């Protein structure tokens, strides 16, 4: 980063064979308010905080991206088209995905099979009343989880008709499959 300092001739060691003067001006040689320049700006703290809040509500990267854009389209109204290209206010899809992956890595650790399943086992062990079993057969893993609500629901005859499976976007990235038995 350039520091704005003024040197006198006495402060600067001048090459006797090739004397010259260098002047630095803090001006751009191009427009800075065009879409290409605005896309290169860093992600704004308000946008980042709003995305992190959506991740806490268990949004996947794609869901958070669309929710964020829909919310901000309403917020900015007629000025949406002006701000849409400004990365400070509207992050790109890759920004959202990278932030999502970074957040999940901090919260759940690496996304390798062994580390992910070990972390899953730690989380499930801390939940009172949750039954689980994780099995490895060759390079395939299977995890069976039964929460207290699921255990109490098994007593109802209608439980076979209703099934809810929550699978985050990580299934797509890791090529996992969810089977209901």
Describe the structure.
- With about 180 residues, this protein is mostly helical.
- Among the domains are: about 35-110, no CATH class; about 130-175, no CATH class.
- The protein is about 45% helix and about 10% strand.
- The protein is built from 8 helices and 2 strands, in the order ααααααββαα.
- It has helices at about 35-40, 45-55, 60-75, 80-85, 95-110, 115-125, 150-155, 170-175; strands at about 130-135, 140-145.
- A two-stranded antiparallel ribbon has the order 1-2.
- Strand 1 and strand 2 form a beta hairpin.
- Helix 2 packs across helix 3 (about 60-75) and helix 2 crosses helix 5.
Task: List key phrases describing it.
181 residues; mainly alpha; 8 helices; elongated
Rounded to an integer, what's the Rg over CA atoms? 27 Å
Q: Describe the strand arrangement of the main beta sheet, using strand numbers.
A: 1-2
Largest sheet: 2 strands, antiparallel
Average pLDDT = 74
SSE string: HHHHHHEEHH
Total beta strand runs: 2
Termini distance?
A: 60 Å
Point out poorly predicted stretches.
none
Shape: elongated
Structural class: mainly alpha
Helix content: 40-55%
β-sheet strand percentage? 5-15%
Number of helices: 8
What is the topology?
Layout: H1 35-39, H2 45-56, H3 61-76, H4 80-83, H5 93-108, H6 113-126, E1 131-137, E2 140-146, H7 148-153, H8 170-174
Antiparallel strand pairs: 1-2
